[in-house]
Amino acid sequence: MNINLDNLQLIWFVVVILLLAGYSILDGFDLGVGMLHLFSKKDVERRMMLNSIGPVWDGNEVWLVTAGGALFAGFPIAYATFCSSFYVPIMILLSGLIFRAVAIEFRSKRPMAWWRWTWDLLFSLASLIIAFALGIGIGNLIRGIPLDANQEFIGDFSSLIDVYSLSIGVMTVALFLMHGAIYILMKTEGELHDKMRHWVNPAIILFIMCYAITTVATLIYQPHMAEAIRERPLFFLVALVNMLAIANIPREIQRQRDDLAFASSCCNIFSLLTIYAIGTFPNLIRANNDPQNLSITIYNGSSSAMTLEILLLIALIGIPLVLSYTFTIYWIFHGKVRLESTSY
Amino acid sequence: MDVEVLARIQFALTIMFHYIYPPLSIGLSLLLVIIEGLYLKTKNPLYKETAKFWTKVFALTFAIGVATGIVMEFEFGTNWATYSKYVGDVFGSALAAEGVFAFFLESGFLALLLFGWDRVSPRLHYFSTVMVCLGAHFSAIWIVVANSWMQTPAGYQIVGEGLKAKAQIIDFWAMVFNPSSVDRLLHVTLGAWLAGAFLMISVASYYLLKKEHVDFAKISLKVSLWVASITLCLQLISGDSSARGVAKNQPAKLAAIEGIYETQKGASLSFFGIPNSKTKRIDYELSIPKVLSYLIGYDFNIEVQGLDQIPEKDWPNVSVVFQTYHLMIVMWALMVVASCLAIFNWWRGTLFEKKWVLRYLVLSVLFPQIANQAGWVTAEMGRYPWIVQDLLRISDGLSKSVTAQQVLGSIILFTIVYSMLFVLFIYLLHQKFKQGPVDVEHLTPYHQQLVAIEEATHEYQPR
């Protein structure tokens, strides 16, 4: 392969963003289902919800693991600085991921009511915490963190918590809540399905409110995001697609075309991530004390051309394989969820 | 305590806890392939029942393995940021390959393995089992390659200086097949097979002891005993080859393993002893003269490098490395005793009556676990003071912006979470084993009953 370093860096940046988008779309509904879990008081309904994500949540989480690996491999400096500066949020995220995994696995193993309630509670809380922590991370990456000349973090925990990043955290929670509600709507029938039809509208309204607030906040407080799009007007299209996708969700729900509503929701998440990527490009970690000189970009934070070439080769061989069996598995488990002997 | 000590404690804690599970899933995945293969061949429903039972145990170990594994992936960055920057160019591609080739394969087909019994044909189900097994083994390959590169770096060049110095890949295949990776990969995989096989041996013996689910137990014991016995022989060869590799590539580690303080010809192989770094000799030593030299170079008089070749401040902790290494060997011997006893008594037809043998077999589940942990402690502590052998010191690999409080806080967090997880894991495993495989079929009505009752009352009543 003869691709120059700049292009390799750009390609790998796109790959990382695609992995993140894949994660948000796929694990996004798992997290949403998790957050909605407690809203139903009946064990059978909870099991329906749990089993709607049962065969796939584990594979969905792998997208995050792989995104982390891809960042480490392609942009080790960004990975190292990101992880060490977001120390506390990452520890919280990791405990969330641990608790969610074991809650799903353990909950239906014993019949006692208290046992199930405990794990249900943990499952729901963990999902909420994961979504919130991810949002705070993204919020801080948009906003930037203070870095020194060695590209090391020079702030502390308090420099990661501000109103803007918290608002992105809340928006992420609302986003996944809506995404999960639509997913359950699509995957269930009967009483739970009817109940979810009542829940889905408040979830959509909540998301649209959060979306509006964070959009305005971004335009006012993070002008560099808007500037990036202003410089390349073509990217207004993405914002347009984003808004159309959001508008299409309640429309499809109204017409009871739940699959299309879900597709719109996926499109919404994908375009949000795209806007994030365009707005922050070429920064991976923005240094808000001196964005011009200290930021870690895809150019100064990347691996060597040779490693990026190897990575590209791995991705070219691996990703078609991954997509083919991911589709196969989703196809085998498509349709409305039913409880079987092997269910959770 | 300083950040370095705390970060090392944290890594040891999280990796050792994590390493209880992946070997179990790797080993069990192989056994599942064999058992389900036997089912497809013989159509004996007992094999299917056995496979179904062990699939559930596999799922439990896999779930905890994944949950604790994600922690490891991010811990490189949180606590060892400088190290991550240093090795990212090399280490990262192995880790990315692991994600793309191993984890997706494993987790994707796990869905079919667990939930696909009634949805797909037996052949497709078996295919998924094989894929899960492959995925599990792939993940071992990439992570061991990455770790082996830290033991015996190859295929790289160093660019930059000081804080900006980093290793850069110049030959991918030389990196993958660095001098220790094949030896270590085989050693780790065989260790994982032993972990899975002895879990099965232990559970089967428990049932035989209790005279419950005897048919199921005999099938499980037969398969796992075969796997264990063959693996134990292979492990002897692999261990020998690994040790020779260590002698060649990491002489300081070998010196610590065998407690060789002075460079000498005709070094002796010790079985027992307490290394004393003050007097620079082994107290209470029990050894055979010259055998170590022979094992290393097939020559009784070959020279073995001692610790005197390196400055004393760079010595690994000789006591720990020496003892964990020998503990691993003792565990191997105990496993050999277990499988010989089992085979001999089965052949004589007395196995199912000999309670003390069965009790010993029940206990045997611990041997491979202890051996795996001890072996890794030897490998990692034997590399001290290097995080990447001869290139980067442990103390230089830390995160610059992380404080001792943060690390201490997360150690406390992980200690609490992991202790709880471990207790629950044992509890659920115990319940699963108490319930036994026959109830796999009974579980269906039980689950359905639960659904029926709740649908009838339409009310979930928490107490």
Write the layout of secondary structure elements.
The complex is a heterodimer of chains A (344) and B (463).
Chain A: H1 5-36, H2 43-53, H3 57-74, H4 76-85, H5 87-107, H6 113-143, H7 163-187, H8 191-221, H9 223-231, H10 236-254, H11 258-280, E1 283-285, H12 291-294, E2 296-297, H13 305-332
Chain B: H1 3-18, H2 21-42, H3 45-79, H4 81-115, H5 122-151, E1 156-159, E2 166-169, H6 172-176, H7 181-210, H8 214-249, H9 251-258, E3 264-265, E4 269-276, E5 281-288, H10 291-297, E6 303-304, H11 318-348, H12 355-363, H13 366-381, E7 386-388, E8 392-393, H14 404-435, H15 439-457
Antiparallel strand pairs in B: 1-2, 3-6, 4-5, 7-8
In short:
The complex is a heterodimer of chains A (344) and B (463). Chain A is mainly alpha-helical and 344 residues long.
Termini gap of chain A: 47 Å
Query: Largest interface, with Cβ-Cβ < 8 Å?
Result: A-B, 77 and 86 residues
Radius of gyration of chain B: 24 Å
Helix content of chain B: over 70%
Number of strands of chain A: 2
Describe the largest sheet of chain A: 2 strands, antiparallel
Helix segment count of chain B? Answer: 15
Major sheet of chain B, described briefly?
Answer: 2 strands, antiparallel
Give the radius of gyration of chain A: 20 Å
Which blocks of ≥5 consecutive residues of chain B have pLDDT under 50? 439-446, 454-463
> What series of H and E elements makes up the topology of chain A?
HHHHHHHHHHHEHEH
Helix content of chain A: over 70%
Estimate the strand proportion of chain A: under 5%
Oligomeric state of this protein: heterodimer
Which segments of chain A are poorly predicted (pLDDT under 50) over 5 or more consecutive residues? none
H and E string of chain B? HHHHHEEHHHHEEEHEHHHEEHH
How many helices of chain A?
13
Strand order of the largest sheet of chain A: 1-2
**Could you tell me how far the N terminus lies from the C terminus of chain B, measured between alpha carbons in angstroms?**
47 Å
